[in-house]
């Protein structure tokens, strides 16, 4: 007996469970992305010959078919696993109903010259019909005949044999009904006849789309008795070649005659093997999944994008930091530190002038801890100048460049999907960056201890100056009223070796005034130098903290969505590979 299925390939076939999980993963990705986005007609396709524009696939068709397959697989697995549904399908005049009657040993199928002879599907059940009721209800087969499990001399318990309407019926509802059932049964037996076995409708619309269903497909050449003995083998060979061209390699045609009974035992044995193995349903569903997975893979060809590199991340963070005003805030931290240093350590005589200068951090509303609402969320905003149009343009360019670099290994439409993950945050970035700046603890908000030490020293020096001025004032008053000054302590004279002159003696009040002025100004100068060094250090730390905050925003709003989309592309591609086996 000729082999009619590609069972040698069973070891290469993935199990139904992994295939189903792979298709479900791929469909979930497409549902999440949105098929209308992925099937943008403006996107070009690429082939091995280079980029070229082609008509995109019908946007919803492959995805809709995938949903239909998932629904059908789920429903068929819920129904009876003890039954195998074998359907006889064929064109008008192929003798399908005669083969059906001969196989079932009944005369329930109408046979005659009037076409079409079969308008509704008919089922013969080997064994009790009740357990198969839900399965036949799902198939919408209402005409049912029950026969004994060993009817015909072979135990076919669990077999449901269907006679389908003609696939080329002039009645639209008839061939639509046949097409729907052909998608749902477990095994299809294609009944062909010597006159129409090469019919383009059968091969193009039915056999070729089922190229992955070779394991559950049987082809018979009915009415073989009408062929001359010398024509039979060439016709069978030609039919086998045509099936191979349709992708049904391994499906070899059986010569059958419903009138003479030729080949019916071989056909019955093939069907009996399907029934005994109890796996035709899984094989059919696996082939359905592989077929629709191939359609999805063609319609939405996916390759995972490039991983995000450290240079890409640094460039993005640098651009966002400039747009967010990190440099301005770092400068304000340094300016605020110097401002408070002058106020705390400056010469008390001129220190009051600093009151007319506003603290740079206060000017940006960053001089204190931010207000927080429920859940600790920052509710305050800063007064950092908004990004200029040039800076906004640079941010948009940086996002597009990041998306392009990441999607470099992807084809359309996934390239645009990955790029959109980078550019989608453009509108939300300004507020997010401002909140990141406001919520970052800045190093310049607190004063170091040496401020108080130097401030106390300045007041001590100022007290010397004040004492000298007061002393000189008392002396001036005494002279003004003509009162004698009995004794005035002096410093000096200070001798010196030639050629240096000898320093004259200075009254102590004068020494206190001069010392107060000189020491006050010198301490202020030294403090200013030290404060400038400290300001630079605090600016560096603030810049680093702010850059980390900006990097967190970049991760959350840009890089994580891009990675998620790359993961979606990879998950889709992996799901398609698994579903295709």
TrEMBL record:
InterPro entries: GTP-bd, GTPase_Era-like, P-loop_NTPase. Residues 42-56 have a biased composition (Basic and acidic residues). The keyword Membrane applies. Residues 37-61 are annotated as: Disordered. The chain crosses the membrane at residues 459-481, 508-531. SUPFAM superfamilies: P-loop containing nucleoside triphosphate hydrolases. Residues 86-200 form the G domain. Keywords: Membrane, Transmembrane, Transmembrane helix. This is 50S ribosome-binding GTPase. It comes from Occultella gossypii.
């Amino acid at each position: 007996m000729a082999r009619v299925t590609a069972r040698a390939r069973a070891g290469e076939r993935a199990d139904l469970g992994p295939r189903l999980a792979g298709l479900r993963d791929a469909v979930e990705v497409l549902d999440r992305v949105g098929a209308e986005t992925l099937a943008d007609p403006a996107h070009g396709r690429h082939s091995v010959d280079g980029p070229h524009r082609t008509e995109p696939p019908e946007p919803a068709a492959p995805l809709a078919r995938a949903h239909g397959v998932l629904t059908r697989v789920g429903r068929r697995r819920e129904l009876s696993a003890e039954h195998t549904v074998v359907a006889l399908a064929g064109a008008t005049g192929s003798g399908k109903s005669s083969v059906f009657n001969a196989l079932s040993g009944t005369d329930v199928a109408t046979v005659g010259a009037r076409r079409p002879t079969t308008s509704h599907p008919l089922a013969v059940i080997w064994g009790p019909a009740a357990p198969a009721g839900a399965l036949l209800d799902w198939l919408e087969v209402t005409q049912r005949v029950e026969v004994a499990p060993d009817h015909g001399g072979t135990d076919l318990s669990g077999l449901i044999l269907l006679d389908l309407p003609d696939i080329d019926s002039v009645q639209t509802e008839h061939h639509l009904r046949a097409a729907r059932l052909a998608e749902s049964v477990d095994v299809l037996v294609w009944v062909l006849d010597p006159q129409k076995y090469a019919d383009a409708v059968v091969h193009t619309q039915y056999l070729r789309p089922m190229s992955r269903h070779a394991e559950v497909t049987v082809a018979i050449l009915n009415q073989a008795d009408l062929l001359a003995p010398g024509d039979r083998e060439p016709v069978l060979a030609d039919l086998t070649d045509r099936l191979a061209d349709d992708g049904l390699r391994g499906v070899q045609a059986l010569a059958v005659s419903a009138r003479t009974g030729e080949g019916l035992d071989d056909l019955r044995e093939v069907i009996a093997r399907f029934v005994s193995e109890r796996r035709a349903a899984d094989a059919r569903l696996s082939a359905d999944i592989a077929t629709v997975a191939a359609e999805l893979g063609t319609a939405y060809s996916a390759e995972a994008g490039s991983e995000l590199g450290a240079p890409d991340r640094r460039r993005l963070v640098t651009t966002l930091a400039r747009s967010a005003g990190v440099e301005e805030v770092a400068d304000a931290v340094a300016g605020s530190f110097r401002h408070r240093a002058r106020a705390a350590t400056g010469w008390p005589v001129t220190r009051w002038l600093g009151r007319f200068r506003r603290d740079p951090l206060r000017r940006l509303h960053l001089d204190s801890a931010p207000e927080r609402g429920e859940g600790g969320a920052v509710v305050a905003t800063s007064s950092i100048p908004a990004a200029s149009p040039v800076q906004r343009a640079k941010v948009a360019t940086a996002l597009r460049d990041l998306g392009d670099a990441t999607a470099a290994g992807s084809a359309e439409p996934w390239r645009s999907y990955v790029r959109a993950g980078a550019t989608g945050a453009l509108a939300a970035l300004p507020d997010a960056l401002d909140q990141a700046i406001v919520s970052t603890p800045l190093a310049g908000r607190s004063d170091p201890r040496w401020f108080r030490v130097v401030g106390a020293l300045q007041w001590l020096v100022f007290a010397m100056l004040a004492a000298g001025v007061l002393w000189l004032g008392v002396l001036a008053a005494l002279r003004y009223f003509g009162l004698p000054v009995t004794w005035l302590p002096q410093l000096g004279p200070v001798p010196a070796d030639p050629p240096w002159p000898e320093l004259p003696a200075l009254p102590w009040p004068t020494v206190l005034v001069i010392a107060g002025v000189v020491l006050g100004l010198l301490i202020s100068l030294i403090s200013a130098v030290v404060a400038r060094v400290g300001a630079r250090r605090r600016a560096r730390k603030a810049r680093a903290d702010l850059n980390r905050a900006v990097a967190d925003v970049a991760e959350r709003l840009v890089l994580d969505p891009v990675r998620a989309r790359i993961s979606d592309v990879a998950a889709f591609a992996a799901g398609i590979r698994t579903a295709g086996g």
